[in-house]
């Protein structure tokens, strides 16, 4: 009888431990899933920030190129004007 009570106690303890282990495993899985989702969201946000920054840099480069082209045209015009003989007033 003592052996039966001892065996029942051990079985009960084993089942309780198994239930706790299952609950712990489920909580761990849930936490890992949430961490993965948070990491994905952070990665998406970082990607969007990089894309926005890249667009800003590209716009700045385009504006600098346009300004350089405008300045080059002005310089050519000024050189052409300077090289042209001016009509003399007689």
Radius of gyration: 39 Å
> Mind describing the biggest β-sheet?
none
Give the rounded overall mean pLDDT.
Answer: 82
Portion of residues in beta strands equals under 5%
Shape: rod-shaped
Helix content: over 70%
Helix/strand-derived class? mainly alpha
What is the number of E strands?
A: 0
Order of helices and strands: H
| Low-pLDDT residue spans | none
How far apart are the termini?
Answer: 139 Å
List the helices and strands and how they pair.
Elements (H helix, E strand, L loop, with lengths): L1 H82 L7
Describe the protein's architecture and organization.
By secondary structure, this protein is an all-alpha fold. The chain has one helix and no strands. The protein has one helix at residues 2-83. The longest helix is centred in the middle third of the chain and has 82 residues, at 2-83. The protein starts with a helix and ends in a 7-residue tail after the last helix.
List its salient traits.
mainly alpha; 1 helix; 90 residues
Brief synopsis:
With 90 residues, the protein is mainly α. It contains 1 helix and no strands.
């Amino acid at each position: 009888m003592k052996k039966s009570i001892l065996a029942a106690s051990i079985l009960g303890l084993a089942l309780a431990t198994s239930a706790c282990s299952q609950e712990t495993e489920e909580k761990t899985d849930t936490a890992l899933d949430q961490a993965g989702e948070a990491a994905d969201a952070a990665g998406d946000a970082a990607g969007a920030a990089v894309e926005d920054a890249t667009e800003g840099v590209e716009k700045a480069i385009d504006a600098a190129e346009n300004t350089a082209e405008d300045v080059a045209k002005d310089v050519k015009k000024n050189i052409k004007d300077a090289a042209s003989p001016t009509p003399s007033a007689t």
